[in-house]
């Protein structure tokens, strides 16, 4: 077994001596236990999860689905970039959800604006689906579809080769399709990226870099 247990552990004794959990010598990706816990991964607003170390290739088509829960009106959801301009990005800005795509010719954005500024940032679960099919992009939030026109119809492939950053990204990493630098504060679950018939569910506990992210541990209410 090479990954940690998604659980709470308390009152541990070794040779009849109780260990002091409050002042550990070192600590990594350990959060407090919650009275009520939901399925999901908790992002504390300070970091990110990095997936696919060798780089994720978006190319012509990708369908992204996830569920999020937050009370913050700003936050990065997901970004995949390249060293050039090609990239995709999902973020919450001023309570709106934005899906940006740049296939090389220029950035286009599908924006979902809820009726109330805080209606997506109400601490409840919301379903998101972002779809890129060649030059066409769409965004579905809680069943509401948003599409946008793309003037760059000849440019169809986002030639990305960097990791997938979720919930934020390091300061020294360039993201060509994200405006926000704010790390996500809240919970995410059921992140699936689908290309053609191949769907991949990402387990945050297997990320190659985790900062301020607690897999399988989502507090039942904002604390």
From TrEMBL:
Coiled coil: none
Domain named Laminin G: residues: 38-218
InterPro entries in the cross-refs: ConA-like_dom_sf, Laminin_G, Neurexin-related_CASP
Superkingdom of source: Eukaryota
CDD domains: LamG
Protein name, UniProt field: LAMA1 protein
Organism annotation: Fregetta grallaria (White-bellied storm-petrel)
